[in-house]
Design goal:
Blueprint: H1 10-19, H2 33-46, H3 54-68, E1 99-107, E2 112-121, E3 126-135, E4 146-154, E5 157-164, E6 171-179, E7 184-192, E8 216-227, E9 230-236, E10 241-250, E11 253-260, E12 270-278
């Protein structure tokens, strides 16, 4: 009796290769006519080749991860003081009576800006924060305090205001929505000025480095658990874009690290280092 397995037979493998030519096709090439039709159809509709869609697919895959992967509720202070991710206030507020303090340093090789902030929750639906910024270097502009507040209207909706008392800075008001737990937060808002001469704001887009901030803005924030103690964050505040990591050492302390690519206002990369403390 011949006990040879037909799947190990060289003739069978050769025949299989002819019947299924796609198995031997070079990587990244199409050898099935249906795949060629699909590729040409995508090219005709979108105006680009399938291979050019890979960066787009990567972005939407990352965005899908922020939507569908579980993440913990963030109760840490963002750079404007309110609880949230790195730049964008979140939908949730701290538990009633809870407080957080934070310190952050944002800078480049030649200049850095530090800030201290504290946030306190009066009720289960509202919190207020105060922040003081300072800049290293002789003769640099020193900032006045920033006051902010957030009110949770419903589980997936909140409103927030950031009032900067520094001369030349506009106040920002925003409506936030998204998924509870700060997995994804989307917001629209407006920058308002008292006398019309203010040029800067914490949120909003600058057409170029010499122009004033635009009055209306769109913001985006998201967080994703890498492990039970570490969050990957992504924030867009109209001009600033930050990719960050937040690592919780324990329930009362977390460390922040963020990277800013160059933007219209600042033409070089920046870093962010910080720490959050709970009370």
């Amino acid at each position: 009796m011949n006990t040879t397995n037909k799947y190990d037979n060289a003739d069978y493998k050769s025949n299989a290769s002819r019947r299924y030519p796609r198995n031997n096709a070079p990587a990244g090439r199409f050898s099935d006519s249906r795949d060629v039709i699909f590729s040409e159809g995508i090219t005709a509709i979108l105006g680009c080749r399938v291979a050019e869609l890979r960066p787009i697919k990567t972005f939407f895959l990352l965005l899908a991860c922020f939507f569908f992967f579980p993440t913990c509720v963030s109760g840490d202070a963002c750079l404007v003081g309110l609880s949230g991710t790195m730049l964008v206030p979140g939908l949730d507020v701290l538990p009633q009576g809870a407080a957080r303090a934070a310190a952050h340093l944002v800078g480049t090789d030649g200049e850095s800006e530090g800030s201290f902030k504290g946030v306190f929750a009066f009720t289960d639906d509202s919190e207020i924060a105060i922040m003081k910024r300072f800049v290293s270097g002789h003769g640099k502009l020193q900032y006045d305090p920033v006051f902010s507040a957030k009110y949770k209207v419903r589980p997936n909706t909140a409103v927030a205001a950031v009032i900067d008392t520094t001369e030349g800075y506009k106040d920002s008001f925003m409506l936030l929505t998204g998924t509870p737990g700060n997995r994804v937060v989307l917001g629209v808002g407006a920058n308002m000025a008292l006398d019309g001469t203010e040029k800067y704001a914490h949120f909003g887009r600058y057409p170029d480095s010499s122009s004033a901030v635009e009055p209306l803005f769109f913001i985006f924030g998201a967080s994703l658990n890498i492990d039970p103690d570490t969050l990957l964050t992504m924030d867009y505040a109209g001009n600033d874009f930050v990719i960050g990591l937040r690592h919780h050492i324990d329930e009362s302390m977390a460390l922040d690290f963020g990277y800013y690519p160059p933007d219209r206002l600042i033409q070089e990369s920046r870093y962010c280092l910080g720490a959050n403390f709970g009370f």
